[in-house]
Design brief:
69 residues, 4 strands, four-stranded antiparallel sheet, mainly beta, elongated, 1 helix
Length: 69
Amino acid sequence: DWTMVHWTPETYVSDGNRCAMFGSCAWINKATGKRADLRIAHLWEFEGSEAVSLTEIFDSARALAAATP
């Protein structure tokens, strides 16, 4: 339902088996043609060399506005 315009990591922070990424992205909603420019954050957790958990946080209000006709 969305077309990605960009996904841009900006800052990484790590502590032990956790890594946080802060950045921005933009998407265009295919149904409305509206663009959503969003701030994003990811928190990754690793066991050895494998990712075992990912939490993603983004500006859902902007995404909803772009998806609303």
